[in-house]
Design goal:
Shape: globular
Distance between the termini: 65 Å
Structural class: alpha/beta
Number of strands: 20
Strand content: 15-25%
Number of helices: 20
Low-confidence stretches: 1-13
CATH class of the largest domain: Alpha Beta
Helix content: 25-40%
Number of domains: 2
Radius of gyration: 24 Å
Strand order of the largest sheet: 3-2-10-9-8-11-12
C-alpha cells in the first residue's frame, strides 16, 4: 500500500493519502478529503464512520492476548520495531519524513536528527527504564501484595486500559512516544492523527504490520484521522464501552471540545500546550567568560526544535538589576545570546522556515521604541533577541516563536516567581544553587519542571510530564483485598 504519493510530495505536496490502520489491517477506501494544516496540501482518508466496529475494542476480554505476553516480550517487540525504523530502509518513514520536510515547523536537518533517534527511542533499555521508573515493572507483571495496619493484605496490579490519544504534530517523537507508552502498558491504543503530521504514527503502525500483523501488540494499535468536531463519529466513538481513557495533547478549545464527551467510565488526561521560561541569577554577570557560557546555554533552551516545543524558553528573566549598569550588562548578554542562537548546529536549530509575519511586525515596531526595547536581529528569519530596558516582558511574549526570545531585567527574583502560573511548564535556571533556593516557591505558583539552564530540551519519558504521571494514569490500578475473618 502506497501511503503517500512521493512524486507529488517532492514537487509541490498537493495531495496524499492516509489510510486507517486498524488492528493489523489497512483500510484504504479513500472517500474524504481534507486540507492540510498549512494550506499547501490536501489529503484523503477513509470515512471512519463506516469502519467504527473495526476501530474500537468494545469487548474488553480481547485484551487478554496482551497479557499472554510478558513485559519483556513486549519490550523486545518494540525494540524490533525501532530497529526497523532506519530512515533510508523504511519506505513508510521516508514518506513521513518527506511530508514533514514540507509541512513541519522543523527544518530538514532537525527532522533527520529526530527520525534517526527512533531506534534508540524504542529500544528495550529506553522503554524499560520508562516503565521501571514511572510504574515499576512488577506491578505490570503480577499482583504485588502489601499488608495494612489492620491486618488486611492488599494485592495491587496495574492493568492497561482502552485508550484514545489525541496527539500533537509539532515534533514527530510525540507519535513514537505515544505508541511506546501505550503499548508497553498493555493498553489498547487508538491514535487520532494530527493534520500537520498524519504519517509518522501511520508509518510506525504499518511497520508493525510488516513485522507481524497477528502479533497482539499490532492487533491493539489503530491510527486514523478524523476532523475534530465530527459529531456523528465522535458521539459513537467516545463511549465507555469503547474508550476508558482519553489522552489529549491540545489547547483550550480542543480540550473543551473533548470534555463534552466525558461521562462516568471515561477519564481525561490532558497534556495541553505550555510556555516555558528561564531564570538567570546575578552570578552570571560576574565576568565576561561566565556571561558567554550562560548565553550559550540559554541559546540551546531557546533554539532547540526551532522553539516549536513547549519546553523552549521564550522569556528569560535576568537578575541583572534595572539600573543603568544592570541594563548595560543585560544588553551585553543579549548580544552574546544572539550570536550563540544564530550559530547553533544545524541538527539542533536553524532559521525558521516560515517566520510569523505578525510577530515580525511586532518586532519591527519595537525598533522604534529604543528607550524601552533593544532588538538584536530579526531582520530576516534567523531569530531575534528582544532586550527589555524595563522590568516587563513584551506584551506579545506568549506568541514568541521562530527563535525569538525576550530578556527581562529584574532586581528581585520574587518578581519572576509571582509572574509564573499553571501555564508555565519548564524553567531553566542558572546557577545550580539558585534552583535549590527558589524551586519550592516556583512550584507553588505552577511551574511544572525545573532544569539546569541549557537542558530544557532533554525531556524524558521516564519522568513526569506537566506535573502529572501520564503513564501511571493510563493504567487502571486495581486491588485484591484479603481479609482474615474475625
Amino acid at each position: 500500500m502506497q501511503v503517500v504519493n512521493k512524486e507529488r510530495i517532492t514537487i509541490k505536496l498537493v495531495e496524499y493519502e492516509v489510510p486507517i490502520i486498524a488492528r493489523g489491517h489497512i483500510i484504504n477506501d479513500y472517500s474524504l478529503t481534507f486540507g492540510g494544516r498549512y494550506g499547501t496540501a490536501t489529503f484523503s482518508t477513509p470515512d471512519p464512520k463506516k469502519h467504527l466496529p473495526k476501530i474500537v475494542l468494545n469487548n474488553p476480554s480481547r485484551l487478554k492476548d496482551l497479557y499472554d505476553l510478558s513485559i519483556e516480550e513486549i519490550l523486545e517487540f518494540m525494540e524490533d520495531l525501532g530497529q526497523r525504523c532506519v530512515l533510508n530502509e523504511n519506505e513508510y518513514l521516508r514518506e513521513a519524513f518527506l511530508l514533514n520536510c514540507e509541512a513541519s515547523g522543523l527544518t530538514k536537518n532537525m527532522l533527520l536528527t529526530t527520525y534517526q533517534a527512533l531506534p534508540t527511542f524504542l529500544s528495550k533499555e529506553f522503554l524499560g527504564e520508562m516503565l521501571e521508573k514511572r510504574i515499576g515493572i512488577k506491578y505490570l507483571e503480577e499482583w504485588v501484595p502489601t499488608t495494612l495496619n489492620d491486618g488486611r493484605t492488599v494485592s495491587i496490579r496495574a492493568f492497561g486500559s482502552r485508550t484514545a490519544h489525541i496527539i500533537a504534530g509539532n515534533v514527530p517523537l510525540v507519535a513514537a512516544g505515544t505508541l511506546a507508552r501505550s503499548c508497553c502498558t498493555r493498553c489498547d491504543t487508538i491514535i487520532k492523527l494530527p493534520s500537520n503530521d498524519p504519517l509518522t504514527a501511520t508509518a510506525l503502525a504499518q511497520t508493525m504490520i510488516e513485522m507481524d500483523p497477528s502479533h497482539p501488540v499490532t492487533k491493539h494499535v489503530t491510527v486514523l484521522y478524523w476532523k475534530g468536531g465530527d459529531i456523528e463519529f465522535e458521539n459513537a466513538f467516545y463511549q465507555p464501552q469503547n474508550i476508558e481513557k482519553i489522552i489529549a495533547w491540545g489547547g483550550f478549545a480542543s480540550v473543551k471540545h473533548i470534555s463534552k464527551y466525558l461521562q462516568p467510565g471515561i477519564d481525561l488526561i490532558t497534556l495541553d500546550p505550555k510556555l516555558s521560561i528561564s531564570i538567570i541569577g546575578v552570578e552570571a554577570f560576574q565576568n565576561e567568560e561566565t556571561l558567554r557560557t550562560v548565553a550559550q546555554r540559554a541559546a540551546i533552551d531557546v533554539g532547540a526544535y526551532n522553539q516549536e516545543a513547549c519546553v523552549n524558553s521564550r522569556v528569560i528573566y535576568c537578575q541583572s538589576g534595572t539600573d543603568a549598569e544592570g541594563i548595560a550588562n543585560l544588553n551585553q548578554l543579549g548580544a552574546y545570546l544572539y550570536y550563540s542562537l544564530v550559530n547553533l548546529p544545524q541538527h539542533l536549530s536553524t532559521p525558521a522556515k516560515d517566520f510569523n509575519l505578525d510577530l515580525k511586525a511586532n518586532i519591527d515596531g519595537l525598533r522604534m521604541d529604543e528607550d524601552f526595547y533593544k532588538v538584536l536581529g530579526g531582520e530576516h528569519n534567523e531569530g531575534a533577541v528582544i532586550v527589555s530596558q524595563i522590568d516587563e516582558p513584551v506584551d506579545f511574549s506568549p506568541k514568541l516563536c521562530g527563535r525569538v526570545v525576550n530578556l527581562v531585567p529584574v532586581d528581585e527574583l520574587q518578581t519572576v516567581i509571582q509572574s509564573t502560573n499553571a501555564y508555565t511548564q519548564t524553567c531553566g535556571i542558572y546557577p545550580e544553587k539558585l534552583k535549590q533556593e527558589i524551586r519550592d516557591d516556583l512550584i507553588r505558583h505552577g511551574i511544572q519542571r525545573i532544569v539546569s539552564l541549557g537542558y530544557a530540551a532533554t525531556a524524558s519519558f521516564a519522568t513526569p510530564q506537566d506535573s502529572i504521571e501520564p503513564l501511571r494514569r493510563m493504567c487502571k490500578w486495581v486491588m485484591d483485598e484479603q481479609s482474615v475473618p474475625c
